[in-house]
Write a structure and sequence with these properties.
alpha+beta; 8-stranded mixed β-sheet; 24% helix; 39% strand
Length: 289
């Protein structure tokens, strides 16, 4: 079954600049290593059980040999941003078979690996959706245990971030998209709710302790801005932090303007870093003051 959001893939034109930018937001970002034969490299901010991936192009020619369609090159040419929301499975073969029974166009699970700077190879299996279901999600089952993937200081971030809470995807027709996502995820379409910080009508799929939210703009705000700038697709990650005030102080000390604050429909306070300070994505923090 699908157990949670495993990670968010943020594709960036300049990996070194992205590492610096996210470090100034208070994320403890470390070089993740290379994807052999794929032409890409990454950096990782690991939380308690999930992580943020900053993905860069290491070797364009190698990437194009591995991916003749050139999707990442085109995406980076448009400035980068959140490319995929990656959902974790505890039995990928069974999940793929179940999707196909629901009529979902999904490929066979394929092996993947990353070689860390320490020379350790981490392995997984992943399955991507086909052209009839071109959603910005794919599915992963880790073959390397979490204890071996998680760095010693995982979750020790200056901004206090502990885990991914929710990822938001901008859509134009939330009702139709909820039906499509529901068929892919094997979940009923959720009732709509109003997102008061991003100003959107949302259908939120609960995937374990995390949420995948489809957001149709309901007025001026981050969702409308994202849709106008980039079109449909993932535009925001919301993280749980131990202290929003401490996170804001760290950012201010490192040259980041104070994030805007608002009240969620849950009654919680949240704050939002805009795309110009987060490599094209909105980064939200929620938690105690």
């Amino acid at each position: 079954m699908l157990t949670r959001i495993d990670h968010v893939m943020l594709a960036v034109p300049d990996l070194a600049k992205a590492i610096d930018g996210y470090s100034r937001l208070g994320f403890d970002v470390a070089p993740g290593g290379v994807h052999p034969g794929k032409g890409t490299e990454n950096a990782i901010a690991f939380f308690e059980d999930d992580y943020l991936e900053l993905l860069g192009l290491r070797d364009r020619d190698e990437y194009l040999r591995a991916s003749p369609g050139g999707g990442l090159v085109d995406f980076l040419g448009r400035g980068g941003g959140i490319r995929y929301v990656v959902l974790q499975s505890d039995d990928l073969a069974a999940d793929v078979a179940a999707m196909r029974r629901r009529g979902v166009d999904v490929g066979e699970p394929e092996d993947g690996e990353r070689r860390t700077p320490a020379g350790v190879t981490l392995r997984w299996r992943a399955a991507v959706l086909g052209p009839r279901n071109p959603l910005p999600v794919f599915f992963i089952q880790h073959l390397t245990p979490l204890a071996e993937r998680r760095p010693p200081r995982a979750g020790d971030h200056p901004n206090g971030v502990q885990r991914t809470d929710r990822v938001y995807v901008a859509v134009t027709d939330v009702t139709a998209e909820a039906e499509t996502y529901g068929r892919v995820l094997g979940m009923p379409a959720p009732a709509l709710q109003r997102g008061t910080v991003i100003m959107a009508d949302m259908a939120v799929f609960d995937v374990g302790p995390t949420g995948l939210a489809l957001a149709r703009p309901a007025g001026p705000g981050p969702a409308a801005d994202a849709l106008a700038r980039r079109g449909p697709g993932p535009f925001q990650v919301l993280y749980r932090t131990r202290s929003m005030d401490a996170a804001a102080r760290f950012m201010a000390d490192h040259g980041v303007p104070p994030p805007a604050r608002g009240v969620r429909n849950t009654g919680e306070q949240a704050m939002l870093v805009p795309p110009e300070h987060a490599c094209g994505a909105y980064i939200g923090l929620v938690g105690p003051a």
